[in-house]
Write a structure and sequence with these properties.
The protein is an all-alpha fold and 204 residues long. Helix content is 87%, strand content 0%. The chain contains six helices and no strands. α1 runs antiparallel to α5, α4 packs antiparallel against α5 and α5 runs antiparallel to α6. The longest helix is centred in the first third of the chain and has 48 residues. The protein is elongated.
């Protein structure tokens, strides 16, 4: 009888734990929806203001496409490697999972470094700052917000790698890997819109 009660208690604990994890995943989806609204607002603002250069440099004068294409290639590759990390997790291969997350983080860091370099070049060599014109205010806010999201994702990913090293693949770390991968794919999709709406349309 005592054994049956203990077993029942264990089942309840497992069920509660599963519900708790599901709730956290649901919370993340809510966060993603609010992020979609945020980026939607920033894109709308950029579309309205992109022609307001106030006599300052235009998109065509500022954007260097080879660097932007390199950024895009790096970020798209990092989305692929984050997918490989999820596959390694489902195979139960902890070292491979950490390895692919490390590659993803390295590519993400390269993307951020290139973006920072682009911003620094604009400010120091072109005199194009966030206060120069409506176009540049909208540009720096939109692209900078995406870059900040990537940077936060990097910190999150590095912390998760340490957690995986310590605890291995558990139901908690599984959820976290699924969530970070989803977040990373979301940032990739946003970047494709940035690349098209901001850069491609800017130089055309």
């Amino acid at each position: 009888m005592a054994h049956a009660a203990a077993h029942h208690g264990h089942d309840n604990h497992e069920h509660d734990h599963h519900d708790h994890e599901s709730l956290k995943t649901f919370g993340f989806w809510i966060f993603l929806i609010t992020d979609c609204i945020l980026f939607g607002s920033l894109f709308a603002t950029y579309i309205v203001l992109h022609g307001n250069t106030a006599g300052g440099p235009t998109a065509k004068e500022l954007f260097s496409m080879p660097g932007i294409i390199a950024e895009t290639f790096i970020l798209l590759t990092s989305s692929f490697t984050s997918g490989l990390a999820v596959l390694a997790m489902h195979k139960g291969n902890k070292n491979q999972l950490i390895g692919w997350l490390a590659v993803t983080a390295l590519l993400g860091a390269s993307f951020v470094a290139l973006e920072v370099n682009e911003f620094v070049h604009m400010v120091t060599h072109e005199g194009a700052t966030i206060s120069t014109s409506g176009f540049l205010s909208a540009f720096f806010t939109l692209v900078g917000t995406h870059g900040l999201h990537v940077s936060l994702g990097l910190c999150w990913m590095i912390g998760l790698m340490f957690q995986l090293k310590k605890h291995g693949i558990t139901s908690v770390t599984k959820r976290k890997v699924d969530v970070i991968s989803l977040y990373w794919h979301f940032l990739d999709v946003v970047w494709i819109f940035v690349f098209t709406v901001v850069y491609l349309m800017g130089v055309m």
